[in-house]
């Protein structure tokens, strides 16, 4: 029976529809008005402001690039950027602004934009004049061309750029004000719409209250009773229907609910049977479209299948474990091993007979197949003679290395016997035993019943470890027998030699008594002498072999000593070369830094820029020197790791801060991704790990063009992906830190070459990208020292991915031998605090202080004196350690000493030790300075008595901070 809704309910819904239509009309009108304003803002006004800002950026970059073109001859990237700016970016921006200006309301603004374009086109023509004059290095050396280019830049381009920037700023301000005005209009439209909506909402609320009262009495109360029953069903209960059924739609719901409850009771009963493991319970679906019933039936079938498969899997795993435990026992003989295997297989698989046949080597190198072990075979088979390869099923299985299975075999010779009778019908399976590159024999199984696929598969899988174990035991026995024979032969040889020596002595003692039989004796002596000579020859050969072995051992020892001495000479040479390179580099960088600071303001902007270029070039040269030293330390095995616990987030944050701006200058998208599964804390040498990551990221940015992408990812490697790698074979977790770029890529035939020292993909004299070719070599070796590896995946033209793999298992936290001195330095100098506190007045404690500089190089003395006198310090100079001690005696007012280490007559070590022996100089701060960059040099200085240590080239801020720290300590201790 079907019920209809109350007519009054229809009226209620019609009223709601009318109210909703009225509300929609009002909202649509106001929304359309706001939308028109919003479209004008988003498609015209805001893009105009953004494009004008981009035009300002284009003008500024154009002036910067053409300035670098004129003053920096090697600025090839600036030249390429200028050409791309004028030929690609500017025309694209000009077209965009021209399209936007067509929608402007004020035509005067469009004319102003056209004037701006004309001004920039004129600037481009000036820049083209300069680009035609300064093309090659010879053009920069031509003073006429250089002056003409500078004149065009100073007289035409820079004034025009400034005027153009002013006009752009004025137009941008006008368009920004228009944007603010349109935003105000849109806000007013929204205010009007909000007022209308509030009034309509009040009316709707009153209507809804009336309708709610009516619907509650007529429908909701019955529905709530139905709802209680449905909630009970939601809690898993199947309640009884006790409510009266009204004559409306709710009544239909109640009847449908009652039918649903009855159906669910039947279905739940069937599901309960499945849960108990009864997979044979019968169930009839409620209808042809009963989805739940059909799903339960399908679930029952799948669970039954899964239960059977799980039982098979457990049986196979248990069998493998049982046989493996037998194989792992140390068997003394092959027969003992094979007997245990056959008995175990028969009992576990449930067969009736089993045998293992092995290939044996007989006289004449002829191979025979013999019975090694058996279980329940009849007497004829046990007494059968060895067979040939290819003879019978066993011989053919061994010869062809293929398994054989025959069911219902009937043969009067092959029988399965018992005490009561014998069966001449059975199933036979033969599995070859293959190991060590050859077939060792075969495993034969016989059963009265047919063997299932599961049992055959199990026997096939277990045959391989059985063969491998037999091969291992046989090899061990052969090795043991050979060793025993060798020892026996050596003992026999020694005994024979001793017997011959005794016989010779006895013959000599009796020679006088046997004169009558001299002829016979001589004959016997000749025979004995011949035998003795043979033994002597064999002994001499053995002695010569021992001498050869000893000579080889001494030669290897001598070569090892030579290699160690060569490494020492190489380390000393690199240390001295570091000193010779860093000493002049120290003066160059200090003087360039002083000129770049231009504290007196007497240098032009161009001269300051030249000084900055000199300082940057010095820094680049210092990085090359450091790479060569690192490579030398790795080759000599002198790298020491400082394994400590560190936060992975700190490494990611450091890389992001370090390279974001550098990548932005080349218009490269640089990002850092730290996976959720990557450990929060890892144990490694942070300095070496960051050194490798910095090198990979800087290379990626270097070889990636503008608009490219560079991504640094820190995540865990996929489980099992590195099991073939020796370093990670026993590691369950491996960390993967990868650097991916969209750069030029590396050809496949040169991917191994990039990890070799001093090798690059493009090694020609005209290569586009520079570098020493040591960065990736050092990076890979450092990764190996950290317990991991560095791998490369690259496609030429599509980019590269370098991945650092490190073991996920934390290594023990340890410190290198130089960890303690580094802590002492950090505690003693307090450099960071001084730098932070000195904003505006960085070195207040240096003015008026006296400092002694001991150095034999006048370049260093000059550069340091200029830098220190600029801070108001009084400088005293000594050319060696002896002169420095004399100056300290003559001038007791010296506040601090800068002591160079490499000096003639008396070096810095001896001078520092002599000063510390003087009670007057015991508390005097002495800062050791050396151009040697070896790690042990710092400790030598501190052991000699130095207060602190600085390596060349010296950074001015570090030098001033160190001096201020030690002078402050001296004054504090004096008080």
Give the secondary structure arrangement, pairings included.
Layout: H1 7-71, H2 76-101, H3 107-133, H4 137-141, H5 143-234, H6 249-275, H7 291-328, H8 334-349, E1 353-361, E2 367-375, H9 379-382, H10 392-400, E3 404-410, E4 416-417, E5 422-423, E6 425-435, E7 438-447, H11 453-509, H12 518-597, H13 605-636, E8 644-647, H14 648-665, E9 669-674, E10 681-684, H15 686-702, E11 709-716, E12 734-741, H16 775-785, E13 789-795, E14 799-807, H17 819-829, H18 831-837, E15 850-854, H19 858-870, E16 874-878, H20 881-890, E17 896-900, H21 908-917, E18 926-930, H22 935-944, E19 948-951, H23 956-974
Parallel strand pairs: 9-11, 15-16, 15-17, 17-18, 18-19
Antiparallel strand pairs: 1-2, 1-7, 3-6, 4-5, 6-7, 8-10, 11-12, 12-14, 13-14
Helix pairs in contact: 1-2, 1-3, 1-5, 2-3, 3-5, 5-6, 6-7, 7-8, 7-11, 8-11, 11-12, 12-13, 12-19, 13-16, 14-15, 15-16, 18-23, 20-21
């Amino acid at each position: 029976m079907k019920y209809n809704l109350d007519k009054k309910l229809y009226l209620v819904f019609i009223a709601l529809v009318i109210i909703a239509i009225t509300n929609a009309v009002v909202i649509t009108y106001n929304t359309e008005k706001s939308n028109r304003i919003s479209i004008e803002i988003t498609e015209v006004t805001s893009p105009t402001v953004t494009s004008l800002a981009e035009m300002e950026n284009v003008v500024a970059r154009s002036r910067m690039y053409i300035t670098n073109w004129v003053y920096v001859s090697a600025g090839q990237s600036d030249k390429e950027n200028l050409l791309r700016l004028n030929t690609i970016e500017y025309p694209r921006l000009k077209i965009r602004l021209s399209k936007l200006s067509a929608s402007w309301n004020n035509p005067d603004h469009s004319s102003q934009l056209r004037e701006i374009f004309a001004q920039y086109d004129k600037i481009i023509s000036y820049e083209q004049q300069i680009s035609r004059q300064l093309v090659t290095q010879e053009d920069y050396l031509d003073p006429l061309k250089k002056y003409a280019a500078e004149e065009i830049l100073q007289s035409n381009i820079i004034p025009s750029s400034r005027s153009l920037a002013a006009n752009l700023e004025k137009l941008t301000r006008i368009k920004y004000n228009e944007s603010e005005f349109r935003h105000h209009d849109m806000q007013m439209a929204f205010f009007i719409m909000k007022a209308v909506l509030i009034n309509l909402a009040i009316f709707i609320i009153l209507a809804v209250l009336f309708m709610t009262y009516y619907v509650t009495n007529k429908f909701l109360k019955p529905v709530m009773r139905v709802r209680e029953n449905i909630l009970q069903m939601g809690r898993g209960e199947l309640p009884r229907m006790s409510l009266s059924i009204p004559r409306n739609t709710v009544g239909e719901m109640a009847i449908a609910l009652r039918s649903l409850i009855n159906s669910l009771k039947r279905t739940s009963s069937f599901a309960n049977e499945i849960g108990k493991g009864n997979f044979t319970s019968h169930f009839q679906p409620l209808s042809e479209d009963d989805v739940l019933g059909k799903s339960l039936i399908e679930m029952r079938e799948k669970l039954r299948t899964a239960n059977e498969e799980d039982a098979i899997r457990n049986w196979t795993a248990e069998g493998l474990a049982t046989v493996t435990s037998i194989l792992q026992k140390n068997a003394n003989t092959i027969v003992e091993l094979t007997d245990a295997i056959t008995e175990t297989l028969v009992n576990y698989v449930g067969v009736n007979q089993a045998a293992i046949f092995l290939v044996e080597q007989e006289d004449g190198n002829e191979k025979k197949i013999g019975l090694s072990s058996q279980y329940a075979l009849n007497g004829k088979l046990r007494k059968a003679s060895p067979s040939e390869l290819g003879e019978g099923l066993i011989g053919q299985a061994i010869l062809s290395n293929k398994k054989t299975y025959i069911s219902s075999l009937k043969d009067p010779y092959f029988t399965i016997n018992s005490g009561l009778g014998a069966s001449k019908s059975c199933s036979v399976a033969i599995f070859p035993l293959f190991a060590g590159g050859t077939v060792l024999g075969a495993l034969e199984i016989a059963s009265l019943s047919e063997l299932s696929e599961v049992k055959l598969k199990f026997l096939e899988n277990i045959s391989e470890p059985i063969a491998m174990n037999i091969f291992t035991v046989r090899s061990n026995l052969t090795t043991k027998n050979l060793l025993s024979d060798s020892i026996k032969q050596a003992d026999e040889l020694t005994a024979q030699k001793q017997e011959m020596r005794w016989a010779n002595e006895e013959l000599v003692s009796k020679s006088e008594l046997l004169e009558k039989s001299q002829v016979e004796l001589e004959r016997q002596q000749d025979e004995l002498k011949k035998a003795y000579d043979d033994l002597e020859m064999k002994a001499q050969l053995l002695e010569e072999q021992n001498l050869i072995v000893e000579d080889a051992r001494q030669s290897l020892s001598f070569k090892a000593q030579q290699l160690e001495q060569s490494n020492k000479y190489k380390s000393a040479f690199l240390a001295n070369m570091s000193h010779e390179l860093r000493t002049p580099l120290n003066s160059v960088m200090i003087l360039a830094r002083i000129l770049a600071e231009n504290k007196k303001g007497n240098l032009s902007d161009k001269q300051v820029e030249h000084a900055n270029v000199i300082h940057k070039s010095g820094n680049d040269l210092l990085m090359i020197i450091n790479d060569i030293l690192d490579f030398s330390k790795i080759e000599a095995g002198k790298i020491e790791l400082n394994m400590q616990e560190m936060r992975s987030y700190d490494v990611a944050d450091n890389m992001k801060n370090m390279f974001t701006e550098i990548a932005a200058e080349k218009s490269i998208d640089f990002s850092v991704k730290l996976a959720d599964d990557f450990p929060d804390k890892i144990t490694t040498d942070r300095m070496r790990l960051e050194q490798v990551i910095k090198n990979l990221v800087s290379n990626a940015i270097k070889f990636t063009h503008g608009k490219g992408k560079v991504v640094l990812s820190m995540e865990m490697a996929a489980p099992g992906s590195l099991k073939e790698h020796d370093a990670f074979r026993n590691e369950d977790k491996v960390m993967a830190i990868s650097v991916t770029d969209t750069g030029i890529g590396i050809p496949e035939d040169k991917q191994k070459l990039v990890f070799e020292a001093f090798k690059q993909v493009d090694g020609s004299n005209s290569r586009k990208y520079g570098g020493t070719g040591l960065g990736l070599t050092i990076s890979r070796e450092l990764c190996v020292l950290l317990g991991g590896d560095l791998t490369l995946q690259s496609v030429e033209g599509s980019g590269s991915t370098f991945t650092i793999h490190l073991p996920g298992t934390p290594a023990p936290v340890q410190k290198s031998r130089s960890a303690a001195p580094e802590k002492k330095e950090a505690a003693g100098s307090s450099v960071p605090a001084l730098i932070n506190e000195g904003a505006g007045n960085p070195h207040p404690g240096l003015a008026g202080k006296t400092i002694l500089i001991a150095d034999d190089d006048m370049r260093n003395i000059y550069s340091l004196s200029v830098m220190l006198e600029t801070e108001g310090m009084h400088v005293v100079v000594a050319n060696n350690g002896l002169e420095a001690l004399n100056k300290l005696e003559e001038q007791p007012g010296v506040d601090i000493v800068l002591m160079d280490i490499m000096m003639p007559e008396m070096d810095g070590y001896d001078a520092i030790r002599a000063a510390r022996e003087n009670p007057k100089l015991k508390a005097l701060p002495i800062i050791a300075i050396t151009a040697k960059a070896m790690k042990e040099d710092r400790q030598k200085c501190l052991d000699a008595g130095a207060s602190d240590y600085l390596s060349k080239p010296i950074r001015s801020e570090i030098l001033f901070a160190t001096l201020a720290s030690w002078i402050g300590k001296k004054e504090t201790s004096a008080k």
